[in-house]
Amino acid sequence: MSQPEHFDALVIGSGEGGKYLAWHLAKSGRRTAVVERKLIGGSCPNTNCLPSKNEIWSAKVADLVRRAEQFGMMTSPSNLDMTKVLAVRRAEQFGMMTSPSNLDMTKVLARKRAMIDGLIALHLELYTASGAELIMGAARFTAPKSVEVSLNDGGTRTLSGDRVFLNIGTHATIPGIPGLSDASPLTNVEALELDRLPSHLIVLGGGYVGLELAQAYRRFGAAVTVIESGPQLAAREDPDVAAAILPSRWGRCRPHPSQTRTCGFPASGSSRERFARGSVG
Ligand SMILES: Cc1cc2nc3c(=O)[nH]c(=O)nc-3n(C[C@H](O)[C@H](O)[C@H](O)COP(=O)(O)OP(=O)(O)OC[C@H]3O[C@@H](n4cnc5c(N)ncnc54)[C@H](O)[C@@H]3O)c2cc1C
Prior knowledge:
The protein has about 280 residues and is of the alpha/beta class. It has seven helices and ten strands. The longest helix has 26 residues, at about 105-130. The chain is elongated and about 65 Å long. Residues about 85-90 and about 255-270 have low confidence and may be disordered. It binds flavin-adenine dinucleotide.
């Protein structure tokens, strides 16, 4: 095996902790390398926090356009009613063509992707400015404090570090619910790459991520059902906070002879989101 290239600091994974640590160490004069197999900057700017907030913002615009009249807009800009509050402008940038039926999810997606491209460019600038070397490839340990990197462009590099930091993050998993993986469910990654509006989205899990996705897709106009097996939405919150999130239309699930559970909802009224409590499977 070839002699490893030696660094003062070697960071595996360019997520939230790793990249800031690497930039700081490199700026302070340490020879630093970061190995990243796919997502420059990690999941937050590429698939998680910022892409979800980007689409949530588009969904908010969709909702505002739909309710534009409440804000003094009669869908055509010439009908502006300045006696009410000016609310919706630039709707097209967010994928809305003034009429809610004209939602263009390809534009929503394009806007999100353009933001990610900008963030990646920014990360690359920060790597260059700090002096930390970004190596694109998958690292695996071959000896203590030594890794072999299968480079994305082909070939390998062997690296060692006085100090090696792991920032290898997490990824979405498909729970072991019978039949679920055969149904090819979406994780956050695929959901945020949709270029069409599903007629009905079922969200498994009523934590923050599930809830914000549910709200966004409801605002885009899809029917949405959230299924939460615990006693409350947003499980880590105090019960009174969770109760405030809970809409009045919290359906109950009942056992079904086929061992699946079905969820019932109050028939009256048109709920904006539907919530069901119960386990699936
Ligand atoms: C939809 C969604 C929305 C979210 N919104 C928010 C939010 O608004 N605010 C918030 O605070 N949090 C939010 N989160 C959580 C947040 O995204 C994560 O907590 C955070 O991104 C995790 O960062 P990390 O650095 O630990 O890991 P990651 O970002 O996963 O970084 C790890 C990196 O290591 C790389 N890697 C792994 N193994 C190797 C290897 N062997 N070789 C080379 N590279 C490797 C991976 O490719 C990855 O890029 C959200 C999560 C989701 C799913």
